[in-house]
Amino acid sequence: MTHLKEGDKAPAFNGKNEKGEAVSLAGFKGKKLILYFYPKDSTPTCTVEACNLRDNFAPLKEKGFEILGVSPDSAKRHLNFIRKHGLPFPLLVDEDLATVNAYGVWGPKKMFGVGYDGVHRTTFIINEKGIIEKVITKVESKRHAAQILEEVALS
Hints:
Layout: E1 14-17, E2 22-24, E3 32-37, H1 44-55, H2 57-62, E4 65-71, H3 75-85, E5 91-93, H4 98-102, E6 106-111, E7 114-119, E8 122-126, E9 132-136, H5 144-154
Parallel strand pairs: 3-4, 4-5
Antiparallel strand pairs: 1-2, 1-5, 3-8, 6-7, 8-9
């Protein structure tokens, strides 16, 4: 789905997190970033994915990763999602789809035979210099952290 690939410069983004604080790619310069896109807060698969990253936050931090989730949800929905599930990482508010579109993760989907447009669950692993090291398009929500660590070990 996405046009971005390993070795590409990660598209810059600017926005606000669930607390209204400014968040940008430039703010992660010098850090490794797991930038994960998901369709909607509090849906079953998105909750499983976020909780898997929460439960494996320490090993990911030990490897030097920061985590930022992105969906088109509002700050209020993000804040409720974070509080309900004790997420230790911020979520970017992308109601205008600026970041979603910059990363090419918006497009046609199907559920129960019905077509619609939405966010394709995709994770970008971005290095300290802002270069995409890995693109995970087949996200395994129940074991997403392990999937990320396996991908990084292969590089």
